[in-house]
Design brief:
0% strand
Length: 160
């Protein structure tokens, strides 16, 4: 009988050991499930979405800045070209001004290449120029009558 009792004690101990081990493993699984569920909480999802939106906004701001800078460069080049052909009808001076802009790198890239090709392919007299006002109106003040007469003569000369 002593042997039977000791065998049953050993079996009871082993059973207790297995039950305790099983309970411990169940607790570990529950803890892991809770940790995994933490990432799926509304707060965690909101933080993730906010971070994603911030990254998207930063990318849009970067692209917008680059495109805005490119647009401003194009506007500046166009203004330079426009100002360089305001030569009161002197096509040679306008051509020299445009060549200068290309050679100095003030009009660059495809615009510079196209401008160079255009200047090389068009006859000098057909190149664009903008005329200014050949005769300036006199300021009103003492002696304006003689300045007004000079203005009238200038206007008559440009009509011929």
């Amino acid at each position: 009988m002593g042997k039977n009792t000791s065998d049953s004690n050993v079996n009871d101990l082993e059973g207790d050991h297995w039950r305790a081990d099983h309970a411990l493993r169940l607790r570990e699984v529950e803890i892991k499930e809770r940790e995994q569920k933490r990432w799926l909480t509304p707060l965690a999802v909101a933080i993730f979405v906010a971070a994603l939106a911030a990254i998207g906004n930063a990318a849009v701001a970067l692209i917008n800045g680059l495109l805005q800078r490119d647009l401003e460069d194009r506007k500046a080049e166009a203004q330079l070209v426009l100002e360089s052909i305001k030569t009161n009808g002197d096509a040679g001076k306008a051509t020299n001004n445009l060549h200068f802009l290309v050679q100095a790198g003030l009009v660059k890239g495809q615009n510079g290449e196209r401008l160079s090709k255009y200047l090389d392919s068009v006859k000098p007299e057909d190149r664009p120029v903008l005329g200014g006002i050949p005769c300036a109106l006199p300021a009103m003040g003492p002696g304006y009558e003689s300045a007004l007469e000079a203005y009238k003569e200038c206007v008559q000369a440009t009509k011929r």
